[in-house]
Amino acid sequence: MVSERRDPPFGGSLVFLLMNLPLGVSAFALLTSFTATGLGTAVVWVGVGLLALVVLAVRGAARMERARVYALLDRYVDLPYLPLPAGKQSRRWKARLKDPSTWRDLAYFFLLFPLGIVEFVLVTTFWATSLALATLPISYRWLPGGAYYFPSDDLRWLTVDSAVEALPWAALGVLFIALSVALTKALAGMHARVANALLGPTVAQRRRMERWWEDVEEQNLVAG
């Protein structure tokens, strides 16, 4: 379940979105390399251990990702896992592999790479443009030729070579900063919904968990 907060905090959203690209690259590289190696060596049983390690790592990383979403975006994502059955390890591994949450965790980390690219490009482009325009009354002095040329140095439709001429651009930059804040929060909110959809329990899983806990309570009552 996602918390009732309407918008994620701005500071946490910005940090979260900038983290997604390096995390997505790392996750994609590790998952593809370990999975490919595990599948390729499964016939000699070495790969089985690697694939088991991938399953454990993905479920552990998904727990950390839920914590990151909560810490930075103030959105709580429920755990979708049922307790593992008691007994032999083979039963526990069978439960992990049959659990759809394991595969949804895996899908999330593969999706984090393309999502991270889109989010990083949008956030850095909007913020770089906004801050460049907002600080133009000061920064134009250090540009080549001591002036800002729009749209480019080769095509000079407008020239800004004084603080007064830069003021309208600075006002436009302030507007872009407001748009960048809204965009940052919107992207973070969208990512939180994706995380909740893939890392949280489905409606069917919630019902299974509720039935499981009801059975446990009944067993405890009978035992008592």
Describe the protein in words.
- The structure is a single chain.
- This protein has 224 residues and is mainly alpha-helical.
- The chain has one domain (10-223).
- It contains seven helices and two strands.
- The protein has a two-stranded antiparallel ribbon.
- A hairpin with a 4-residue loop joins strand 1 (148-151) and strand 2 (156-160).
- Helix 1 packs antiparallel against helix 2 and helix 1 packs across helix 6 (163-199).
- The two termini are 32 Å apart.
- The model has no long low-confidence stretch (mean pLDDT 88).
- Keywords: Kinase, Membrane, Transferase, Transmembrane, Transmembrane helix.
- It comes from Amycolatopsis balhimycina DSM 5908.
- Pfam families: Sensor (PF13796).
List keywords for this structure.
224 residues; two-stranded antiparallel sheet
Helix/sheet category: mainly alpha
Tell me how many strands there are: 2
Beta-strand residue fraction: under 5%
Assembly form of the protein = single chain
Topology:
Elements (H helix, E strand, L loop, with lengths): L9 H31 L5 H28 L15 H10 L1 H35 L1 H4 L8 E4 L4 E5 L2 H37 L3 H21 L1
Antiparallel strand pairs: 1-2
Helix pairs in contact: 1-2, 1-4, 1-6, 2-4, 2-6, 4-6
Report a brief summary of the structure:
This protein is mainly alpha-helical and 224 residues long. The chain is built from seven helices and two strands.
